[in-house]
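Mods, move this if it's the wrong board.
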Amino acid sequence: MANPKQLIQEISHSLVSEPQTQLVQDGRLRSVVEIVAERLPLSDLSERMINDIGAEKVGTFYDGLQPCEVDTSFHIVGLLLNLVPRHVSISKDGNIQLSVESLETDVSTIYESVSAGTVEYSVTLRLANVDIARPFQLSETVLLKKSTPEEIATRYPIDRQHFGVAQYAEENWQHHCVEAEFKRRGKPADIQNERGVNQTEVFVNSVVHAFLFANSSVGVPNITHVNFQSPIETSTHLQNMHVSWSAPRMMTDDDVEYLKHAFDFLDRVTADKVLEVSTDRFLIAKKRSSHHPHRINSPNWDKLVDYVIAMETLFLTTNGSSAGHELSYRFRLNGAALLQHCTHNTKLELFHALKHLYTLRSKVVHGCDESATMKAAGQLLATLGNRDDVNSPIQMFGKIVRIVEGWLRSALIHVDEMENNDRPYRKKDGWEALLWGELARESNAETELKDKESK
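Not the wrong board. Structure tokens:
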């Protein structure tokens, strides 16, 4: 493999041959990057690195990186300007110091990566409002860890220039130390793509949605920053500042286990379009406020409608297509057939409850007056024996949402645990088999019991 020692010597000579530099110029403090760029013969160093590694390997490594019409040396210059300042410190009197050993380690890693064609890198999300007792693997490539307050302050400094930050927020900033680290490997073009808005949201949502689906006791963390770390570049992007700056809430052991299962589940469901669409709608409902956005003391019935839509995706898909007729009846029949296996309710209880739920959904969607909506809601709770201690529309709504959310989560998990071809919406007469197969088993069990009693 190519040896970077000559490159390191040239960098060291260029920076420290004249160890002092002018820190202030034209009344402003100069940055380390500016001073390094002024001192280094970047074109010569770029050419040396390309010759050391090989032009073909360097070209392959940077293939697809934007801007793509420029010479490869352009990207190498950018790499050097990103890399070298990390290992340079400048004292108040302008003395330049270079950490040669750490620079050599990083440059050696870069030579190896470029020669191999890909580089290891990490995407790290800073999670506010949650705390963990110890690090744990969310998956094989995702680690939830806790950094020190000093590391958090260095990696995610407060942006006072663009945001007004209250004193209490500054005091609590360093106490929110949990990070989710995604281990990745790819080319610079892959890193550039994942820094884009769409792909960054994929990382953020994978964590936020896992907390939502797991229904964690600590709530859902806010992702304040996204950090990209690799030998070739480092960058941190502010995601949002909508953070509750009280003390972060500690996750229990159960929270951790539920979160792992939820993360794994959300990764798997992408292979099944029906399950994926239903889960997406479930998450949309979870994100909705329980209070109406324009009438704060009124229920946000659209939240419940989203849950019912998610159920329709599951219950009204037959043989890979949408059910064409008798939608309300099929919703009740198929839903009861499935939910009896994953809830504590009886099949008949579920059948009647789903009738009132579908009626309630229709009242909301078609703009019926509040009295008709509340009547349907009351009938649903009465069917389940949960009408007691409900004194207001908000209380009634909250109780119904908790029930329906629990049903739907259980149904999604239950279907996910089935073999793909055994899922009732996947095969001809799948729902009928789920319903009548159970009835047949019950009938056989009753017959066997009668036979035993007669003997």
